[in-house]
Specification:
Distance between the termini: 24 Å
CATH superfamily: Metalloproteases ("zincins"), catalytic domain
Shape: globular
Radius of gyration: 15 Å
Mean pLDDT: 88
CATH topology: Collagenase (Catalytic Domain)
Number of helices: 5
Number of strands: 4
CATH architecture: 3-Layer(aba) Sandwich
Oligomer: single chain
Strand content: 15-25%
Low-confidence stretches: none
C-alpha cells in the first residue's frame, strides 16, 4: 500500500506525515483496499482547496475536504486494464487544514480527531461511497462512525 502525504508550508501544530499516513492506512486496510492500493493525501491551505473546488467541481466556495478519484469505473467495478506499475491508483484526498482547525474548535475535539474524520470521509469517497441521496448518506455516515471508532485509540 502506498500513501503519499504532502503538507503545505506553515501549519504549526499539524500532525506529522507519518501520523496522517497511519490514519489513512488504517482506513484503507479496514476497507480491504489491499496492498496494491495507492492514494495521495494533501494537507493544504483553505485558499488552495477553495480554488480546486471552484476549478474542478464548479463550486466557488470553501470546503473542508475534496476527493478526486483516479478511477473511471464505479467503486464496485474492477478496472479492465491494470496499471503497469501494479498499483490501484485510488486518487487524491485534499484537506483544508485551517478549516479542520476551525471545525475541531466548533465540535470541541482535538484537531487530530477532525483530521481523522476528514481523511475517513475523503477516502470513503475514493472507495465509492457517496452522500447525494438519503440512503447513501446514512450508509456513508454509519461507515464513517465505525471507522472512527476503529482508529480512535490512535488519536491521542
Amino acid at each position: 500500500m502506498e500513501i503519499n502525504v504532502l503538507i503545505d508550508e506553515g501549519f504549526a501544530g499539524c500532525p506529522t506525515p507519518r501520523w496522517l499516513e497511519g490514519i489513512a492506512r488504517q482506513v484503507l486496510e479496514a476497507e480491504g483496499a489491499g496492498a496494491e492500493a495507492e492514494v495521495g493525501l494533501l494537507i493544504a491551505t483553505g485558499e488552495r482547496v477553495k480554488e480546486l473546488n471552484r476549478d474542478y467541481l464548479g463550486e466557488d466556495a470553501p470546503t473542508d475536504v475534496l476527493a478526486f478519484s483516479a478511477r473511471e469505473e464505479g467503486a464496485d467495478q474492477t478496472p479492465f486494464i491494470h496499471p503497469p506499475d501494479g498499483l490501484l491508483h485510488l486518487g487524491e484526498v485534499i484537506i483544508a487544514y485551517p478549516q479542520a482547525v476551525i471545525q475541531a474548535a466548533e465540535h470541541r475535539h482535538p484537531v487530530k480527531k477532525e483530521l481523522a474524520i476528514l481523511i475517513i470521509h475523503g477516502l470513503l469517497h475514493l472507495l465509492g461511497y457517496d452522500h447525494d441521496k438519503p440512503d447513501l448518506e446514512r450508509r456513508m455516515k454509519a461507515r464513517e462512525a465505525e471507522l472512527l471508532g476503529y482508529i480512535e485509540g490512535g488519536l491521542k
